[in-house]
Amino acid sequence: MRKLILLIVAGLAVGALFGHLMMSVPGYWLIRVGDTSVQTSFWFGLVLLLAAFLVVHFALRLLSGMIRPVGRFRTWNSRARNRRAMKRTVRGLVAMTEGRWKRAEKTLVKAADDSSTPLVNYLSAALAAHYQGHYTQSQEHINQAQLTTEGADTAIGLMQAQLLIDRQQPEEALAILNRLDKQLSNHPQVLKLLKQVFLSVNDWEGLRRLIPRLAAQQLISQQEREELEFKAYRELIIFEAQNPSDIERVRSLWADMPDYLRGKTELIVLYTEALLQANEDTIAERLLNHSLDHHWDARLVKRYGLLNVDPARQLAKAEKWLQERPNDPELLLACGRLSLRTGKWTKAQEYFEASQRQRPSGVVCAELARLYASLGEHNKSQLYYRHSVEMLAKSLPSLPQPSDASDSQPGSKKAAKRA
């Protein structure tokens, strides 16, 4: 109601303004053609001119519509088809979400030609075909997506790589991802898929070089980074150590390794074994000395006791550690073995027996048995050999034995007695 009143007031105001202008600004139009002339007032002529303009304008529009009816129909038809395609696309995506892959694929492909986003249709159809196990058809949809949309190489490549990974074809996926990585440096999704592929194909060198880039993009947590780095360096050292003549490669890995990993016992042991295989015993001894001074571990102590670099110096170092850890069974075993290397039989016997008192072990019993046999004390040697076998037997799994099987046979003597 208020709007109507405002319109009426505005109309009256405009009318009054024009009335005032018509009264205050007199004038006339004179049109003469040959002997004929037409004269009218200025304002009436102005109204006639405006009316003529409107008539001509609408006449031209009507004429244009009559001249191009096919084009207008095509435009209307295209818009209608696009609307239907969008509805079908939505239905197809809903079917995808519900896991109805066959219906989704059929609906999305049918709507693709009229859709304003054919890339979405064909890539979604490719995914639906993939989930049905129709891999050839899935690739055809991807190829069609590439033809319909320019500038979508990244999206299509990522989709191809993901589908190939799901199909257990990591090598083919890796080729696509490497190409994308060269084109788009540090693309987050490319880096994530590269990590997944490197792990699946055991490409530890590739993973080692990828980890800093993943961390820089904040795509992995600190904990995951440390786990991946540990695994990558461990596997690389194991692989490179298979060729003792190329110890420089292992040394390079150790030098490139983050500082916190050099304190990991498992990696220290692996590096030590690689050095020993390459006859780098002196370097291995220095490594174990340094590691044990900063990080005590029974596995490193055991390996130190098996070294044969300078037994006298090693024994002196081990005995220095023993002052701080007098009851360490592994260190006592190592001191006993180093004593054997230096020819100190009595001291070796004492260290072995002290280790056995701290923690009974089949290995220590075997060392004592061998030592007593060499000293001619065969009774003690046999006693410790028996203890060694008994302790080893206790660590074996419980499995059926021939005596157990014979007891259960109907014709056996024991079975007869039970009867």
UniProtKB/TrEMBL annotation:
Pathway as given in its UniProt record: Porphyrin-containing compound metabolism; protoheme biosynthesis
Keywords attached to this entry: Cell inner membrane, Cell membrane, Membrane, Porphyrin biosynthesis, Transmembrane, Transmembrane helix
Transmembrane residue ranges: 42-63
Ranges of Polar residues composition bias in the record: 401-411
This protein's record includes keyword rRNA-binding: no
Localization per Swiss-Prot or TrEMBL: Cell inner membrane
Annotated stretches, region: Disordered: 395-419
Pfam families: HemY_N (PF07219)
InterPro entries per the UniProt record, alphabetical: Heme_biosyn_assoc_TPR_pro, HemY_N, TPR-like_helical_dom_sf
Membrane topology recorded in Swiss-Prot or TrEMBL: Multi-pass membrane protein
Annotated ranges, domain HemY N-terminal: 27-133
Function description: Involved in a late step of protoheme IX synthesis.
Protein name, as recorded: Heme biosynthesis HemY N-terminal domain-containing protein
Lineage: Bacteria, Pseudomonadati, Pseudomonadota, Gammaproteobacteria, Oceanospirillales
